[in-house]
Amino acid sequence: MTIHFGCTQCGKCCHNLKLPLSLAEAATWLRRGGDIELFCEAIPWPVEPPDTDAQAMHKRRLSFPVLCGALPIRVVVTVVASFDGACPHLQSDGRCGAYELRPRVCRIYPAEVNPFIPLTPASKACPPEAWSADKPVFLAQERLVDADTLEVINASRLAAAHDAPLKQHLCAYLGVSSAALANEGFVIYAFARDVMLEALERVERLERLGGGDAHALPASEWQFVSNRRATVDALASIEAHHAVASSLTEGHVRYMEFFASDL
Ligand code: SF4
Ligand code: SF4
Questions:
Q1: Does any domain span residue 231?
Q2: Strand residue runs (E) in the chain
Q3: What's the pLDDT score for residue 238?
């Protein structure tokens, strides 16, 4: 399949977004007056999958291991700059006001970072004319053509793998220990800007001092959160720590559901 693409500068990709950021990008975002949230999900990981399982290895790179009761799990924490309406950096002339410092995810749009998500124009904000056949070839034989975009995607993947164990420290500093079951939803934590920045700066210092090893952390108890009866019953049957979504009553924590609650 060949996909042509040329940006029309319509600016739609700078509105109503949830931008996944690296830890370094998140600190920059906060210092420039933005807000970020932590989207937490977790995968039961009772046994190590074989190295040949490419999807599992991908998830492994993005996650850190903890226990949930007696159940080994891997937690994926996505650091997200989310906003309704225009990005706080979008200028009235439609240009990015943070162009030199804009996150990688903005630099590669509309390409995908996740190697298991195919590029589908229909899922992107770009108008139909951006994909017309007179535009340059963007993707040929399932591969991106543009070397610069590929380089940024590679850097993004490396940063995600580098950040994964550090996120365990970030969560410990912030008291984050709940996650949705992967593909069911997210537990979302939103802290005040100064609290989040202080925690990120502690992680930066820890890394500078060479203490970025997750094993240096005190053990923390994680729990699954769900809004579905079948999930809660299954977790209870294997003595995994769990809570129902409606029990998240603290103001800075909420549950984003992918399925209607039956609890
Ligand atoms: S940082 Fe710049 S490129 Fe990214 S969404 Fe905001 S305005 Fe758009
Ligand atoms: S939505 Fe697509 S076409 Fe419009 S500015 Fe963003 S990248 Fe360009």
A1: yes
A2: 2-4, 15-21, 37-44, 64-68, 71-86, 137-140, 143-144, 178-181, 185-189, 223-226, 242-244, 253-257
A3: 93
